[in-house]
Amino acid sequence: MPTVSVIIPTYNRSRELREALTALTKQFFQDFEVIILNNNGDRLESVIADFNGQLAITYVDLPENHHVRARNHGVSLAKGRYILLHDDDDLLLPSHIEEVVGDLEAGADLSYADAELFTYDWQQDHRVVRTTEPFAYPYDREGMKEDSTYIPSGSIYRKSLHEELGLFDEEVFNYWDWDWILRVGQNHLVLHPARATVLYAFNPSGNHESAKQDASRRVYFDRLVEKHQLPTTDMKNFHIVQEERRSRLRETRRTFSGHLTESE
Q1: Which residues contact 177 (CB under 8 A, 6 or more apart)?
Q2: pTM of the predicted model, to two decimals?
């Protein structure tokens, strides 16, 4: 059985997914499986085939585009004792899995790293980085109730947490990750080491999914606020949080050169 199950929901991002999988082949730690959940998007067999013999991949076509339900399905298939969450357009630097596994082996229940936010342009079939900046804030559960600085992509946790806490909450949809970090942090050890080993993609058009602050998101946000009795009524994405909190950025280890090929 693998130590880690990497869960990647995806929807019509075959080029980005290919980059993410390539980065996984370069991880120093290789005792993991990859579970790809295709959310009713274009078929991905040709992408998966390119990694035969390099990655242990389970590929599932789902009948709907529901990213939280897809992650829950991935959890149900996971064979590893640790779960690593991974967005299809993000990349992990080569040391990432080795280091976060080390955090759990040292006693943490969940560990998540700092990130390098990057914008990009497309050149033919690959992305070229345009700008980067760290997204690096200390973990504080009470502060997390004000606004979330938890980036789930690249985060790792003990699969056994689901036995205690249940699956990801599909009723809060866009805010499933904020809900999860609050639930885990209540009675479990969360580590947030100062290592920027996650490359977090911001769409250069400004239409990143988390930037859409509309009425449908408000419904899910209000559910989250009620569930956790949060002291906030402001919906914020990472763009907004970064603008408001930039003066509180912490020192973090940054090794990203600015070239995505570093992860290839």
Answers
A1: 148, 150, 152
A2: 0.94
